[in-house]
Amino acid sequence: MNMPGKKHDPYHRFIYSEMDCFIAITKYLEKQAKENLPLNPEKIRQVYYGVKVPAGITSERVKKLKEELNIRGDFAIGLLGRLSEYKGQHLLIEAVGKLKEQGIFINAWIVGAAFEPKYKDRLEKMILKMKLTDQIHFMDFYPNPIELMSCFDSVVLTTKNETFGLVLIEAMHAGVAVIGSDEGGVPEIIDHEKTGLLFESWNSDALAVAIRCLYEDEAYRKKLALAGKSKAREKFDMENQYQKFLEALK
Fold first, then answer.
1. Over the range 190-229, which residues count as b (16 or more CB within 10 Å of their CB) and which as e?
2. What's the Rg (C-alpha) of the chain?
3. Does residue 207 contact residue 240 with C-beta atoms inside 8 Å?
4. Are strands 154-157 and 76-80 parallel, antiparallel or unpaired?
5. Distance (Å, whole) CA 244 – CA 79
6. For residue 212, is it within any domain?
7. Are 109 and 141 in contact, with CB atoms under 8 Å apart?
8. 233: how many CB neighbours lie within 10 A of its CB?
9. pTM of the prediction?
10. Is the CB of residue 32 less than 8 Å from the CB of residue 10?
11. Rounded CA gap, 88 and 204, in Å?
12. DSSP code of residue 54
């Protein structure tokens, strides 16, 4: 999690004095730790999360799953994560609405448990008011996210300031083009216009522009997806990260 303020009070000085190694999951958090924690910088290491891609995700399986889950349309986009205002699901709804006004009809699936029921109620009212009931769909928690992501043309992460963005590397491993906000650790995952697209955090207009870019240019979308998958295998492979973690412990 973010560590935006200094933690040099007696309690934190005691806690961190007992620590032999602190592992940050992004360079963004490593910088915060060095600036704000009462720790010798030599004790702070940076190791990314790694993801293991499940076996059995074939084109036939994806086609069958899309039929089972009724994922349809010329362009399907997914947003996975618990329903919470900080996660920014409303931004995707706003972006889909803006694209509809431009004559572009996007089908979007918001996947995750409703941690904030009042927020979900607000989202549902937005969808009704904007007449997007045929385009925005809710789905509860899904146990195999990479399999589900394989059914989408793009996966978006709208969190205001995500410390890492595990969803993005899962989508990249699935070979899906990704869009993420330009705050926190996300720019370490997405190289803008090379392995995915970044948009200005908390700006639904910018998100709509990014979605339209992938919608209108299938070749570019596939190019980003391929480059993203290559980066995920190189930088965010579970076995490689286990090895780096082991080296840090040694």
1. beeeebbbbbebeebebbbbbbbbbbeeeeebeebbebbb
2. 19
3. no
4. parallel
5. 30
6. yes
7. no
8. 14
9. 0.94
10. no
11. 10
12. P
Number of residues that this document lists for the chain:
250
Nearest by Cα to 135 from 155, 107, 111, 156: 107
Give per-residue pLDDT as tens, 18-30: 999 999 999 999 9
Please indicate, yes or no, whether residues 111 and 31 belong to a single structural domain of this protein.
Answer: no
Give me the CATH number covering residue 102: 3.40.50.2000
Please tell me whether residue 198 adopts helix, strand or coil conformation: strand
CB 188 within 8 A of CB 27: yes
Q: Which two tokens stand for residue 150?
A: 């394989």
Residue with tokens 């409303």: 90
Q: How far apart are CA 99 and CA 180, in angstroms?
A: 18
* Same domain flag for 113 and 186: yes
| 4 found inside a domain | no
The 10 Å Cβ neighbour count of residue 144 is: 12
**pLDDT tens digits for range 173-226:** 999 999 999 999 999 999 999 999 999 999 999 999 999 999 999 999 999 999
